[in-house]
Design brief:
The protein is α/β, with parallel strands linked by helices. It has 12 helices and 10 strands. Helix 9 crosses helix 12. The longest helix has 24 residues. The termini are far apart.
C-alpha cells in the first residue's frame, strides 16, 4: 500500500477514535434517586429528567425510586449520581450518626428546593391529642430508609417510647397507610412531605381527622436528638376540619450529588433547573418563585464545586 494512503488511513482512524472519545465524554447518563410513588419526589424527578435532557446536550437522566436516607446511602455506594434528600438526615450522614454506619465521604449539597413538614395525622375519634397519646395505638409509619420513619422514631423517643410501645406498626407506602386508616386498622399515620399532602386529603375525604401537634417541649427533646429540626406550622385550613394552626417540625428538601461527580455535569444540571423552576413549581407549589439565592441556602452539607460555580455566577454566593 502506498505510504501516503497508509498515512491517510491512520489519520482517519485517529480522528475517528478521537470523535468516539469526545462523544462518550459528552454523553452523560445521570442516575437520579427520587422517592416512593405517591409522594412529590418521584414526579419532581420526572420533571428534572425532562428539563435536563431538553437543555443539556448529550445528557440523559434515569429516574430511580428511593427515599431520603436510602438516597444518601445510594450516593455513597455509587449506585446513584444525584438524588433528593432531606437536610436533617443528610447532616446525620455527614456526621456519621444513626441510621448511618459512618460519616458520608462522597455526598455533596447541590441545591435547596423547599421546606418539608413532618405531619402526624390521627383519626379524630382515636383520642390522640399529643404524641404521648400514641402509646398503645396502631400506627402506620413510612418504610425504613425514609426520613419520616427516622423522625417518627425520634418523636417516640422524645416521649419515652419505642415502636414496641405501640399495639401494631405497619411500615408501608402512603397508599397503604391511607387504606389502613380508612378501614380503622391504624389510628395514626406519620409522613414527611409538603402541605397539603395528597395522602392526607385522600384520608380526610373518607374519615374525620386530627393533625397532632408537636409542642415546644417535644420539639426541644427532638432537637437534642437532631439539631436540624426546626419549628414549622401547618396553617389552619390546610386540611378539612383543621381550624387552627398546628405546630410541627420542618426541614429542607435538597438535591445531593456524588462529590466526585464531574463539576461540569453538576453545573449544567443546576443551571438548567434554576432556569426552569416553573416546571417544578407545577408539581410542588412550595417551589413557586424560588430563586438561585434560595437554592444556595446552606443546610450544613458541603456544597459541590459545580453548584458553587453556578451560584457564584448567578450572584447567589
Amino acid at each position: 500500500m502506498d505510504r501516503n494512503i497508509r498515512h491517510l488511513f491512520a489519520c482517519v482512524a485517529v480522528a475517528g477514535a478521537a470523535a468516539l472519545v469526545a462523544q462518550t465524554a459528552s454523553a452523560q447518563q445521570i442516575k437520579l434517586m427520587t422517592g416512593p410513588q405517591g409522594g412529590s419526589w418521584y414526579p419532581l424527578g420526572g420533571a428534572i429528567q425532562n428539563i435536563v435532557e431538553t437543555n443539556v446536550d448529550g445528557a440523559s437522566v434515569q429516574v430511580l425510586p428511593g427515599a431520603g436516607i436510602a438516597n444518601v446511602k445510594g450516593i455513597e455506594a455509587g449506585k446513584a449520581d444525584m438524588g433528593f434528600a432531606n437536610s436533617v438526615s443528610t447532616v446525620d450522614a455527614i456526621n456519621g450518626k444513626p441510621p448511618f454506619d459512618g460519616p458520608a465521604k462522597d455526598t455533596c449539597h447541590v441545591a435547596t428546593l423547599y421546606p418539608q413538614y413532618f405531619q402526624v395525622v390521627a383519626l379524630a375519634d382515636a383520642g390522640i391529642e399529643t404524641p404521648a397519646d400514641i402509646k398503645g395505638k396502631a400506627a402506620s409509619i413510612q418504610p425504613k430508609g425514609n426520613t419520616a420513619e427516622a423522625i417518627s422514631a425520634h418523636m417516640l423517643e422524645a416521649y419515652g417510647m419505642t415502636y414496641d410501645d405501640l399495639s401494631k406498626v405497619n411500615f408501608g407506602s402512603y397508599t397503604d397507610a391511607v387504606s389502613l386508616m380508612k378501614d380503622g386498622n391504624a389510628a395514626v399515620f406519620t409522613l414527611g412531605t409538603t402541605v397539603p399532602a395528597g395522602a392526607i386529603m385522600d384520608l380526610a375525604s373518607a374519615r374525620d381527622i386530627k393533625m397532632v401537634p408537636i409542642p415546644d417541649d417535644g420539639l426541644a427533646k427532638m432537637q437534642a436528638l437532631n439539631g436540624g429540626y426546626k419549628r414549622g406550622i401547618i396553617k389552619a385550613g390546610s386540611y378539612p376540619g383543621v381550624d387552627a394552626d398546628v405546630p410541627t417540625i420542618t426541614y429542607a428538601t435538597h438535591i445531593i450529588a456524588r462529590c466526585s461527580l464531574d463539576e461540569d455535569v453538576v453545573y449544567n444540571v443546576i443551571k438548567s433547573i434554576a432556569a426552569n423552576v416553573g416546571d417544578l413549581a407545577s408539581i410542588a407549589k412550595a417551589m413557586t418563585g424560588v430563586t438561585p439565592k434560595d437554592m444556595a441556602f446552606d443546610v450544613g452539607v458541603p456544597m459541590h464545586p459545580g453548584a458553587q460555580k453556578f451560584f457564584k455566577e448567578a450572584g447567589a454566593l
